[in-house]
Amino acid sequence: DFAKNFHEHYPSKSIFMIGGDHSVSYPMVKAYLEAKKVQGKNVALVHFDAHTDLMDQRLGIDICFGSWTAQIVDDLPSHAHLIQVGIRSTAKERSHWEKKFGHTQIWAQEIFDRGAGQIAEEIVTKLKSLGVEEVYVSFDIDCLDKQYAGATGTPEDGGLSPYEPMLILQALFDNFKITGADMVEIAPQVKGADIK
Question: What pTM value is reported for the model?
Answer without folding.
Answer: 0.92
